[in-house]
Amino acid sequence: MSAPAQRITIKEVAAAAGVSKGAVSIAFNHKPGLSEATRERIFTVARELGWAPNSSARSLSTRRPDTIGLALCRPARLLGLEPFYMDFISGIESVLAERSCSLLLRLVSSLDEEIALQEAWWRERQVGGSILVDFHQDDPRIAPLTSLGIPAVAVGHPDLTGGIPSIWTDDAAAVAEAVRYLAALGHRRIARVGGPAGLGHSAIRERAFQDTLRALGLPPTTPVATGFAGEEGARATRSLLLRPERPTAIVYDNDIMAVAGLGVAAEMGVTVPDELSLLAWDDSQLCRLTHPTLSAMSHDVHGFGAEVARELFDVIAGRPVRPRPVMTPSLTPRGSTASLRTAVS
């Protein structure tokens, strides 16, 4: 094991910036007495060296937790269409409203942009803490945000979040339930349309999906990874239904893709659920408005958001927290899934 990296000190930051330690303190406490050029030079050097004031040594009295940050690496158009995040954010807002707090929501185009944004939020005292979502395997945000000292809660399995306090749903157990249900209906060729391969929860779901197929003695399927938009779900469904041995059941990673898949099945003359069963991951009003209605893995997304917000306030207050799962998504059967032999419309 390699030795831990030596911690950068304020003295080293001051020397590299060509200023005194007092000037570094003035810059980070946003006090007058420095030119903007000097202040920005100090911030640039600190960022390059990976240094930030120790959060325990800095008085939090000037950093009231009246604003919480949330950055999403999603296209604005998709965010407006995706029921999951609308419900999740409404759950966060329900807790913030109780405390007269605000949510600072920003859309970013990359994780590097989010890191820079989180650093600016914390440096400029814009937020009292942040909610971190959509963790990747070996997520690049963990190291810089941990060293920054920003109070944060991660939405993701502890295997992905690097020690940041986390809350998650047991996706592996939910995927296993979905596959076992479809197998019990007599389906032998079950496919999955997953989200982007780089997302940690997509990898967890795919691993559980293949493991469950193997345990049930069912043939493995080639992963179909795509984005979360409807047109991407439609394209993936079309490719699956054009295979020589097309699946008789498909599990989707969200409701938008499942709705799009239902439309593709109708377009290609494949009857749901007589010839093809479809199962959505997130349950929403969309799933109840289709014909046939969509079976889904349901969970309380609004309550999930509220739990995340409460956990963040505990972190900000310095109360002990531990990684914990919320309720596992459960199966809600509807009209889009049925036995191949006894299918009903």
Automatic annotation (TrEMBL):
It comes from the Bacteria. GO terms for molecular function: DNA-binding transcription factor activity; transcription cis-regulatory region binding. This is LacI family transcriptional regulator. It comes from Streptomyces mesophilus. Residues 324-345 are annotated as: Disordered. CDD domains: HTH_LacI, PBP1_LacI_sugar_binding-like. Gene3D superfamilies: 3.40.50.2300, lambda repressor-like DNA-binding domains. Residues 329-345 have a biased composition (Polar residues). Residues 8-62 form the HTH lacI-type domain. Keywords: DNA-binding, Transcription, Transcription regulation. It holds the Pfam family Peripla_BP_3.
